[in-house]
Specification:
CATH class: Alpha Beta
Order of helices and strands: EEEEHEEEEEHEE
Largest sheet: 9 strands, mixed
Low-confidence stretches: none
Number of helices: 2
Radius of gyration: 15 Å
Shape: globular
Helix content: 10-25%
Number of strands: 11
CATH architecture: Alpha-Beta Complex
Strand content: over 45%
CATH topology: Nucleoside Triphosphate Pyrophosphohydrolase
């Protein structure tokens, strides 16, 4: 099982996001864990590699299993550990090797193209202070089939 980390960096009313070229979807910067790394080491390294910034106060905000299903069989599965940070140092890369970096307004994020499950992730990370746990089942082309989340997304209040 692959393990990945990502981080939502928030500065005032903006979050730094990455637009992946393959689908044009927006994501939180991050990537795969290397052998022997902790999730905190991975998120710090991956975020710096993809953005140029060193995050200083990363807090774990979500843990998800992502399961790809085709013909009622599991094709792949990975764990994603999502962090949030508000303090950082360094200079933003002019161009990330992973896609386009852009500071997005927090109230605009829900309108950006992204995987359907990421809507729940961003909503939780930006509106709550606890940790969310869950599982997402997707088709190989990332159509959301089903999900289980704790806390339930219906409990997430939007402060608009």
């Amino acid at each position: 099982m692959q393990r990945v980390t990502n981080c939502v960096l928030v500065n005032d009313d903006l979050a730094l996001l990455l637009q992946k070229p393959r689908r044009g979807w927006w994501v939180a910067p991050g990537g795969k864990m290397e052998s022997g790394e902790s999730i905190k080491e991975t998120v710090t390294r991956e975020f710096r590699e993809e953005t140029g910034f060193s995050i200083l106060d990363a807090k774990l905000r979500a843990v998800f299993s992502m399961v790809i299903i085709e013909d009622d069989k599991i094709q792949s599965e990975w764990m994603m550990f999502t962090f949030q940070a508000t303090q950082f140092e360094g200079e933003q890369l002019e161009q990330s090797s992973e896609g386009d970096l852009k500071w997005q307004k927090l109230d605009h994020i829900k309108e950006l193209p992204m995987a359907e499950g990421d809507q729940y992730l961003f909503r939780h990370v930006l509106e709550r202070d606890d940790v969310m746990y869950g599982t997402f089942h997707y088709t190989p082309d990332f159509k959301l089939l089903s999900y289980r989340l704790d806390p339930d997304p219906a409990e997430i209040k939007i402060n608009n």
